[in-house]
Amino acid sequence: MAERRLAVGLGMAMRLKADEKSVLGIGQLSARQKGRAAAGSKLSNRQGNKNDAKLPMRNIQYRVMRELFFTWVAVLYLCAAGPLQAGAPVVSNVRAAQRAGTGLVDIYYDLASPSNALTVSVAVSTNSGAAFNVSAASLSGALGSGIAPATGHHVVWNAGTDLAPLYFPNVKVRVTADDSGAPIPPPSPGMVWVPPGTFVMGSPASEAERYSDEVQHTVTLTHGFYMGKYAVTQGQYLALVGNNPSYFQTRDYNGNPISPDLNRPVEEVSWNDATNYCALLTRSDRGAGRVPSGWGYRLPTEAEREYACRAGTTTAFHFGSAIHGGMANFYDYYEYDAAIGDIYVANPSVPWLPRTTTVGSYAPNAFGLYDMHGNVWEWCQDWYGSYPTGSVTDPQGPASGSNRVIRGGGWYDLGWYCRSAYRGIVYYIRYIPAYRCRDLGFRVVLAPGQP
């Protein structure tokens, strides 16, 4: 995969006041950046000086009707991290203005890149860019993954919510475009882009009933990847492979009849079956032009699976420190709390289901991935082995072994098996690549580097 490249565009510093009626400011700023770092270097206290920076300038007047408003002041910043790499994205013409009579700020930017899908984020500083320290949660518009190059991209920031009426002398807005985010369009709506990042893998010693092989260590994933929004369904498997091996087609675990539902996850599939499916899907999508050469489907590594499951969280589950009936499809006679351990429930308020459920029946995590806890276990690419010590980058697991790792827990499992850090191999040394079970399925990853 090509080196990750960022473009960062910053508007000029702004002043948030509560007493003035109108202001006159100067400013149009273009900014470029290659690499993963984002650094600011002050160019000038510009007041129309033609010699200090070769950037186009124009006069803009904003009139504000309420307390909250922004004033352009003459402080310019340009981000740079060495020469611009050919083909790197460029963010330019970053500008912002408050809507009269409201706390809403309209942010505009232009985006140029040979990639047709980038990940764009907006950050806010209240100290002229020394630190982008504002929790700007109230953002909407042209940000997130899948943003195409264009001029006049528009983001709306509810500054009235995030900066409840206070005085800030130097507010700055930063727009970042990352071409490692979704470098190709998603081949289907069922794939979710998972950005690169760093996280702590494993569980803390304080997490009740954890296993000793869940040793915490820092993992950095340098490349993003697409992951299936859901586990592969019976219908998807049937359409591609030509058969449906699943147990849960017309009966539940107790033999009672159930209605056929091809949107349940496929199960009774081995690791070999799952990797064969990935190979067939790669061939099919390349042939149809949905996936370019050099990209392909595979199983997630164990590190990718836990990173995607956590989605930025550090708790036992992506939804918190405990799992209760109705939060996932698991054996909810035994709930779990990380501070306590197993919690026996004689009469679950949400009756246990002796079968799989339709994919997407429970709330997704922050990445938009469903059923990362419960329903079916999911095969990982790795052989099982001890974790490395210290910080690691893009771990692939042992080079060889006897058993493959599974993750996530299933419909038949106690709550603590469904934890983000649980490695489904410890006391069930049976997951050889040919093993099949009615609570074992998989989901796919799409990433570069496939033959």
Your description of this structure?
This protein is mainly beta and 451 residues long. The chain folds into two domains: 6-178, no CATH class; 186-451, paralog of FGE (formylglycine-generating enzyme). The chain has helices at 159-162, 234-241, 271-287, 302-310, and strands spanning 6-10, 14-17, 22-26, 29-31, 40-44, 59-63, 69-72, 76-79, 90-98, 104-112, 118-125, 139-141, 144-147, 150-158, 168-178, 191-194, 197-201, 217-221, 225-228, 295-298, 322-323, 334-337, 341-344, 377-383, 392-393, 404-407, 440-441, 445-448. Strands 1, 2, 7, 11, 13 and 15 form a six-stranded antiparallel beta sheet that branches. A five-stranded antiparallel beta sheet has the order 4-9-10-14-12. A four-stranded antiparallel beta sheet has the order 16-19-28-20. Strand 9 and strand 10 (104-112) form a beta hairpin. The radius of gyration is 25 Å and the shape is globular. The two termini are 13 Å apart.
Brief summary:
This protein is mainly beta. The protein is 8% helix and 31% strand. The longest helix has 17 residues, at 271-287.
